[in-house]
Specification:
By secondary structure, this protein is an all-alpha fold. The chain has a domain at about 1-75. It contains three helices and no strands. The protein has helices spanning about 1-15, 25-35, 40-75. Helix 1 runs antiparallel to helix 2 and helix 2 runs antiparallel to helix 3 (about 40-75). About 10% of the residues are buried.
């Protein structure tokens, strides 16, 4: 029963109907489980519990997003014009690394 109802409800949830499928997924799960005789109160409890578990699972991503996106903006120093550095390109703070050349690559004589 759950092997049929939950994937169908998840498919309906992923349709671009609402923001993150809020409300649509819960209604789809209640409807599909009602087809198998599950009372609406129990199926709604299952749908809300799965939504809470999903949000708890996504919570670490918020901290990683802060470290990857928001924190590098603070690390950029003042720009050459004397500004506060918030509009400096990210590439300016990354040191350039020469491309790796294999040791067995033939040397090419300079042109000219």
């Amino acid at each position: 029963m759950l092997l049929v109802a939950v994937p169908l409800a998840l498919f309906i949830t992923r349709l671009p109907i609402s923001v993150a499928g809020l409300g649509v997924g819960e209604a789809a799960e209640v409807y599909t489980l009602a087809l198998f005789g599950v009372p609406p109160v129990q199926s709604l409890a299952l749908a809300l519990t799965s939504r809470v578990v999903e949000l708890i699972g996504l919570l670490p991503g918020a901290f990683l997003w802060y470290d990857l996106v928001a924190a590098p903006r603070r690390r950029i120093g003042p720009d050459a014009r004397g500004g506060d550095g918030d509009r400096a390109p990210v590439e300016a703070s990354v040191p350039s690394v020469p491309p790796a050349v294999p040791a067995d690559a033939p040397s090419v004589p300079p042109i000219g």
